[in-house]
């Protein structure tokens, strides 16, 4: 019954030591986390926010924060 949780957890636990092995893997994981976060926030704002001015302000704030997150990630990796 709970095998689904184990099928998702065990590969991640086995994958964790390999993250620190290669710098490109870390960069790839940061990139996918960033894209997932960015697209998720934009879809939440577009779905649940109906005031146009607030939506435009928050979408521009997400864009500015995404530039800052990219800059901090590149500083960390380089």
TrEMBL record:
Q: Which InterPro entries match?
A: SQR/QFR_C/D
Q: Which terms are listed as keywords in the entry?
A: Membrane, Mitochondrion, Transmembrane, Transmembrane helix
Membrane-spanning ranges? 6-35
Does the keyword section mention Transmembrane? Answer: yes
Naming one, the record's GO cellular component terms include:
membrane
Protein name from the UniProt record: Succinate:cytochrome c oxidoreductase subunit 4
């Amino acid at each position: 019954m709970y095998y689904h949780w184990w099928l998702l957890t065990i590969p991640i636990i086995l994958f964790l030591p390999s993250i620190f092995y290669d710098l490109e893997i870390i960069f790839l994981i940061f990139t996918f986390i960033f894209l997932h976060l960015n697209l998720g926030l934009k879809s939440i704002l577009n779905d649940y926010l109906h005031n146009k001015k607030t939506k435009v302000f928050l979408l521009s704030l997400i864009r500015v924060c995404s530039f800052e997150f990219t800059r901090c990630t590149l500083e960390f990796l380089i």
